[in-house]
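ugh ok so i messed up the first submission bc i forgot one of the chains. this is the corrected input, ALL of the components this time, i swear. 357 residues overall. if the numbers dont match what u have on ur side tell me asap before i send this to the collaborators (the ones from the other lab, u know who)
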Amino acid sequence: MANYLELGLFLPSTKGSLIIAKNMPSRREATWGLNKEVVLAAEAAGMEFALSQVKWRGYGGASGHWDGAQESFTLMAGLAAVTSKINLIASVAVRTVNPAVLAKMAATIDDIADGRFIVNIVAGWNKFEYAQMGLWSDDDYYLNRYDYADEYLTIMKRLWTEDNVTFDGKYFKMEECRSNPKPKRPLKIVSAGQSEGALSFVARHSDYSFIGRMNDTAEQLGVVARKIAALAAEHDRTVTSYTLLNVIAGRTQEEAEARKATFMADRDEVAIEEWLRVSGFDRNRADYQELPPETTTFMSVPYIVGSHEAIARHLDSLAEYGVGGVSLCFPDFENDVPDFIANVMPRLTCRERPAAA
Ligand SMILES: Cc1cc2nc3c(=O)[nH]c(=O)nc-3n(C[C@H](O)[C@H](O)[C@H](O)COP(=O)(O)O)c2cc1C
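and heres the new structure output, hopefully the right one now
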C-alpha cells in the first residue's frame, strides 16, 4: 500500500499567488469570495487543509503582485464558520502581535472551527514588511528570529494549558498572564524554513514542517523529511514534512508548457526587481548572481508543469519518498482547482487509505 499524501490549498489570499506576471486570470485579487469558493470545493473533494499566508506588503509593477493580501487570522475565522471538515491553517508573523493576544485569537478560531485550527509560525524574513510599521529596526533580529519565535511559542503553548503564566524571557515578559477559554486540545503548529535555526525550532515545537526548494527532487525532499523526523525524535516528538507546489496543468504536456510560456513572456520585470531587492538579491550587490528567469517568475517556489497524468505521478512519488502532504497553489484558482479535483485527484494512488483492520 502506497504512503498516503494529504492535500491542501495554499490559498489565493495574496494577489497573484506565486507567479509574478502581468495579465493573469481575471480573478486574481485576494477576495473572500474566491477564497471561500475554493476552500468549499477542496473540502467537498476531501482535501485535508487550507493555508493562508501573512503578508504586509507587495511588489508593485503592472501586476501589483501581492499588493493585496487578506489578513490571515480574520480570513480563517470566516472560513472556520462556513466549513466543517477541512483543517484551516492561519499564519502569524511573530514580530507583529503579542503572543498572549495571538493565543486567545487562536483559541477563539479553534472554537469556531471545532478543533480544526492550526497555527503557522512565521519568524519573518522580509524586513521591508515590518520596518514600514516600525516593528523591525534592530539589525540583528534576522539572526535571532528563531530564538524570538521560540519564546513566543513557549508562551502561547503555556497559555493554552496553564491558569497563570509568569515568564521572564529575553524578548517577552508575562506577569501572571491568563488566557481563557482554553482550546479543547493543544493546537497543532506548522512552520516552514530550512535554515539551521528553523530546523531546530521545528524539531522542538512544530507538528508539521514545510520543506522544499525550487528544484528539489522527491528523493531530496525525502532526505530532508527524514532529517527532520530524526531531529524531532531526539525531543520525543513527531514532525510530518509537507511541501509547497505550484501546479501548472494542462490536458497534455504541450498545453501545460504553453501556459507556462505565457507567464514567462508576461513576467512583470518591475515587480520582480522589487522582490529581488527586498529578498536580499539586490543587483547592486557585488556578489549578485543572475537567477534563471523561472526562479524569479515563480518566486523560487517548487513548481510543476505537466499533464494531469504527469502531475498525478509526481504527487505519488512525493508520497513514496515520505513527504506527508502537499500545499497546492495554482495560477488560476477559479478554474484550476475544479480541474485538479476532476482530472488529477482520480489518477492518484497516494490517496488510498489503508482499509481499517
Ligand atoms: C508553506 C509555506 C508557508 C509560508 N508562509 C509564510 C507566510 O505566511 N509569510 C511569510 O512571510 N513567509 C512565509 N513562508 C516563508 C517561511 O516562513 C520562511 O521564512 C522561509 O521558508 C525561509 O526560511 P528560513 O527562515 O529558515 O530562512 C512560508 C513558507 C512556506 C513553504
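quick check: The pocket of flavin mononucleotide is lined by residues 53-54, 91, 120, 122-123, 125-126, 192-195, 198, 210, 244, 327 (CB under 6 Å). that seems consistent at least. The longest strand covers residues 240-250.
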